[in-house]
Fold this protein.
Amino acid sequence: MGTPLVGTAIITGGNGLLGSEIAVAIAKAQPFVHLLLVARDIRSDSVKDVTDRIRLVGPRSVEVVKADLACFNSIVSFSQNTVERVRSKEIPPVILLINSAAISSYVTDQVTRDGYDPVYQTNCIAPFLLTVSLLEAFRAGDGTPNGGARVINVGCSAMSKGSLDYFDNEDPESAAQPPGTPMSTKEATSRFGSSKLLMSAAMYALRRSLVLNGNIALNVYTMDPGGLTGESHQTTTAPLSVRMAHQTRSGLRPFLRVFSKSAINKASVPAKVIARVAFQKETVENWGRERYYILDSEYEAGSVIPALRDVARMDALLQKVMRQVEMGVKGMGSPQSRVSRLTAREMNRHHAFSNGYAAYPRGKGSTNNTFSISPHRFQPRPQPALRRRRQLLQRLCLIAAVSTLLLVLIFPSFRAFFLPAVSLGIVSSAEDLQLETVRYYDLSQMQGSGSGWEQGERVLMCTPLRDASSHLPMFFSHLRNLTYPHNLIDLAFLVSDSKDDTMEMLSDMLDELQNDPDRSMSFGEISVIQKDFGQKVTQDVESRHGFAAQASRRKLMAQARNWLLSATLRPTHSWVYWRDADVLTAPQTILEDLMRHDKDVIVPNVWRPLPDWLGGEQPYDLNSWQESETALALAETLDEDAVIVEGYAEYATWRPHLAYLRDPYGDPDMEMELDGVGGVSILAKARVFRAGVHFPAFSFEKHAETEGFGKMARRMGFSVIGLPHYTIWHLYEPSVDDLRHMEEMEQERQEREREEQEQAERAERVQTLFKDAKTQWDIDNAIVEDAIQEEGQGQESEDLTPSSGADSTKGSEEGPVAQPAAKEQGSVDSALEEPTTDRKQAKQ
């Protein structure tokens, strides 16, 4: 699933303060761009630092070449080699050139070998010559706003103090001063600013000429990064007063940025802006504009450089720079030269060509002074003798090249002598050779440490998949929740013997993950490998965990793991993390938690949840254990190809299992030495696999796959550790017996619900037919009490009513007659007592 490179980005001064930050920013934003860094000394520590930083970003195509901008021959040699490599498709077409290299000087300098001020040549003429020499490499564009190439010139605020004729009006007194004479800060600033101003103006003039001819789609920008903090060669060679002023501005950076965000910044700030501007999509309107950037603010170039509005002056400047470039190149006058010669008059020597095209009009009839590139080839017709001599030389060169190639192929020792000679001065020795197809890695830096997330250590996460479409949503949810930096994690999947839509679902979910709006969710390199191993054991629980299928199944699983690891392990990986897709829950910090122990191989405890009627939870992974004497004795009695598997009654090993030692309240950092490990979750250092440890697909000490991996790692002296109290939970998959029992329980539940419903209906019918006895008794009791009260009131009224006959009788015959009256009164009292007794009984 490799993606081809889309283009080449050349950065001069790639090991400088700003150039290195630009390279890192482009590596982060554009992973499919080939970075070609130009440095004067490719063996310096700064070159090593920037390449190491780019490697930490991820797998990137980066190359460092040697070229001295103070030497025209070195620039042209580099350009010729680059153009040839583009033509031969060794590298993709050049789509970006960033002129970041620059020098400043506060003393009078000796002129270069080409006869120019070193500040002027490095900052102005060299970038112009490099741009013109690479025109053929720029021809990859199609002339549209999205096509063509871009040239970004790094300017400076000192351009406002410079002038276009600074290097033309040479002061006689300054010319008479010996090299090394100190210059004033004002003069040095004007000198540096003038060189940058001339470079920008000449580049814009070149672009105008190219646009008028319509041959090459080339867009030129100038970007003023503002003040930069940090030490560079420009500040270290400055006078003490300049250095102190720079340190003061650096200390006041937060306050200065309140007034101007370009006042002073870290080098990474303008580097990110350049990386964004260099690859932003253009519109037709913007493509025709000449733009000037001050940090991320865009302006018209003519408003910053007023001289651009003077067309005649720009044409004269372009002609002058082209003449200086022509005179500065030594020994580059052949038609295959990459330097275009510009002149308005006929010259008595043959003309130079830029990439096979005439670089300027020739002859007496040429009256147009505007620089142009014509698509018509022109080459002086050689004399017959010269033509014969050239054919002879070509044949001799061909024979010499074939002989040299044979010597290099047959005798490798000759390579150290021939390769520097044919490198056109780009490299000086065999150690400096940097080719696109050659990668240099220092594996001593990829050992793995206990704080890998702080050291930027890359992790390869491997996951074998088979009929796992139902588990992928849960697995990708775990991936998103990982707290380890996602850009440092490379994912590797092996899809084998699947009959469902695992591959289609995996592709869709990976695409969704990598295109997440939150860029922190995106992972590094992702590899998906499809390979069938003829696995005939089905994926149901009974088949996968049946004893009869264990030996053959685990040997095939070991092959799958080895295929996946060997195809995806890169020299940049420090750790390898194996993770099954059917893990139910795991801590988000599992990588950091396991890595913190700094062990060669480490595994957590693995349990699984169960239904309440099965106990609620159960140890799952029994493949993590310590060796026992019983197991060693058992191994001696088995055949050579036999494989011992744990958790089955057929092999009673009596080993201490990591799973059975779990304490929910124990210390999660407690360690336990192991001999065998399970494969649900394994974190191992990459050096373990590089040393030769693998998953044996055969009987290794009577074990295979992950258990054999643990045995082999211990055999080779690596530490194998388990964490008994650090637990992750595996998905519960019911067996056939569990499913049968669950069906019986479901039937019982339905029967119980049916009985409860019938009882409720029966009770409702009884309540409807029969009233409440207590309520009826209260009603009857109240009626009885009312009747008794009424009867008592009637009796009292009769007793209180007097009769004349009775009174007369009572007065005349008090004694005899009183007795019946008393008896009658007693009968009335007894009659009144009887209702009272009845009332008490009723109440009781």
